[in-house]
Design goal:
Helix content is about 20%, strand content about 10%. It is α+β, with helices and mostly antiparallel strands and about 110 residues long. A three-stranded antiparallel sheet has the order 1-3-2, with helices on one face. Helix 1 runs parallel beside helix 3. The chain is globular.
Amino acid sequence: MLDWTAADPAGPESRKPSAGSGTCHGALLVAAGQLDAFLLLGAGPWDIAPLIPIVQEAGGTFSDLSGQYRTDTGAALFSVPDSTSSSWTSRAPPTERPLSGSSTRS
């Protein structure tokens, strides 16, 4: 049994295992098509692993900095296909289309 009464209140603050909502926000923006790429540094496997299927199901990719499929390196690169090539291009915003059933005539 742990004795919590012996803990030193003046000791160093404990570090959270993740950086909060900002840790996953960039990867979710990649999945939503709002970012071409997001580099997550200093992350634990618990930060990276849940994001992989979300980004991949949305058509994105995942790798660590060496291009491998590993979650234990502390780094994760989430991107959309072809966004990590040598030529970065900005994507045009989606064009607005009328809702089906709506008429453009007056």
